[in-house]
Fold this sequence. Notes:
The chain is mainly beta. The chain has helices at 7-14, 53-67, and strands spanning 110-119, 129-133, 149-153, 159-165, 176-182, 189-194, 214-218, 221-230. The strands form two sheets. Strands 4-1-8-7 form a four-stranded mixed sheet, with no helix packed on it. A hairpin with a 6-residue loop joins strand 5 (176-182) and strand 6 (189-194). The longest helix is centred in the first third of the chain and has 15 residues, at 53-67.
Amino acid sequence: MRRLISRRRVVVMAAASPLPFVVACSDSDEPEPTATVPGSPGGQGANSGGSSTATASATGTTAAQATLPPTPQCVDEDDEPTIAQTEGPFFTPDTPERTSLLEPGMSGTRLLLTGDVVSTGCVPVAGALIEFWQCDDAGEYDNAGYRLRGHQFAGANGEYTLETIVPGLYPGRTRHIHVKVQAANQPVLTTQLYFPGESRNDSDGIYDPSLLMELGDGADGKVGSFRFVLDV
């Protein structure tokens, strides 16, 4: 079977380019919605009292398939676990649960980050804990409070959404966002996300191109995406 090149491999191949690189995502990357079909727990079938064993079997099979969570589109290396990276000196525990880190009067370019959390078998990790923290657009971390810090839980299909800003340049580092991801009762993955096209990427000793977000322009700023793959 012909192997497809994963988005992660494409990003790695493009990391050497000095120009900003954006990977276009096809609609097939999004999970298919779960449908309610006749005979399923969510609806009444017209042939619920079916007269043949074959009809009942087919209906039961369809209903069972419809109640399973959709499997995300995975190709090639999407089953490789996301690599771990250093936590850094500025992690703060017990952050607020929220999907938006934006606050009134906060300066900086808006960033909408979306994606999902899956296992190495490409099964959605529902309810995964995801923690984000970063510096502000001036490159400063809030070490007294919870500004630009927060955690959330992935949805039923492993999906997450984060509203934040593009972080500034912290001294000695390229632009990045810190992340912790954990499936229930499993080890914590600590890692970082990076921005394509940054001039400091190549000189940053921690940077890894496999952790590049897919990044593009949105109506109110930047839009990014990243899939976390947990070794579960």
